[in-house]
Amino acid sequence: MALLRADFYSNYLKRNVMLTAVIPVDKMDGDKRAKGRRGPYRTVYLLHGLFGRDVDWIDKTHVVETAEARDIALIMPSGADGLYLNKPEINEWHGKFISEELIEVTRHLFPLSRKREDTALAGISIGAYTAVINGLLRPDRFGSIIALSGTFMRDRILEAVDSHSPRKRRYYERFFGDLDTVIGSEKDYEALAERFRDNPDLQKPRFYIACGESDNLCQSNRDFAGLLRANGFDVTYWEPEIGGHEWPFWNAWIDCALDWFAPGEMKPTTAGGDYTALTSLREPDKPIPMTGENPDTL
């Protein structure tokens, strides 16, 4: 794998943006360079969590090894607070940066596939929320969405709108803009999912969602998976008994997600052993609800 760092000016963000790209152009087979296809590659755009960096994925997971085994290219932008949302009221277009500018720039720089079925948007925590929002806004671009321990905050925002605490409201407005406009908007994942029910001609992205039972976001992830299924989406949902809101969990489950996106033989990873041993399906007596309200889980 070739690991490259790029620094380019974003017209949408009006600043320079750092990204890390992993491209399988120099894949080795033993002591020799493998002779195989050289693109266009299936691509996963990986978003970090709150106040993270593009290199978090390199430093804290073995995702590069997994991607190499499947000839997948990885694009990891650095997003400061981790939220790539459009805020038209203040002329900020972070969402369009992800779904338009980043896609076009990286496809110009690297031999990436332009097919939606070969393109996935993935994230952890608040980055998973961002991936869901932008993936649902641009299903023509992203055929797959991967959300690990997603911070699905719609009900929490509603609470802040009705709260008498100015501090709480200001905190959320920092990320979401005017809270009175969030519900039913392009920042509302429930509203975005439901529009596919009303527009059957829209192409639906498929979803991979995973959240550990010990994560306090587990119930909201379970509810969101049920909401998606109620609206006709293809959803793969995992809720293992182990794993909290932490990198060891994401390290294991990004492997599983990439295997779902591009199935293939998996060699033992640097984590040791077969990664599939870390996964377990939900018990039959714990069905995922089709509908339900998210609790106060943030």
Furnish the topology, listing elements before pairings:
Blueprint lengths: L1 E9 L4 E9 L4 E2 L2 E2 L8 E6 L8 H5 L2 H7 L2 E6 L8 E2 L4 E2 H16 L9 E6 L1 H12 L6 E5 L5 H9 L3 H11 L12 H10 L7 E5 L7 H13 L4 E4 L8 H15 L37
Parallel strand pairs: 5-6, 5-9, 9-10, 10-11, 11-12
Antiparallel strand pairs: 1-2, 2-6, 3-4, 7-8
Helix pairs in contact: 3-4
| Coarse morphology | globular
Mean pLDDT: 83
Oligomer: single chain
Classified by CATH, the class is Alpha Beta
Lateral arrangement of strands in the main beta sheet: 1-2-6-5-9-10-11-12
Shape-level CATH architecture? 3-Layer(aba) Sandwich
Beta strand count: 12
Query: What is the strand content?
Result: 15-25%
What is the CATH homologous superfamily assignment?
Answer: Alpha/Beta hydrolase fold, catalytic domain
Number of domains: 1
The profile of the biggest β sheet is:
8 strands, mixed
Task: Tell me the distance between the termini.
Answer: 37 Å
Percent helix, as a range, is 25-40%
Fill in the CATH topology: Rossmann fold
Per DSSP, the total helix count is 9
Name the helix and strand elements from N-terminus to C-terminus, one letter apiece: EEEEEHHEEEHEHEHHHEHEH
Structural class: alpha/beta
Low confidence ranges: 268-277, 279-298
Rg, nearest Å: 19 Å
InterPro entries: AB_hydrolase_fold, Esterase-like, Mycobacterial_A85_antigen
Region (Disordered): 273-298
GO molecular function: acyltransferase activity, transferring groups other than amino-acyl groups
Pfam families: Esterase
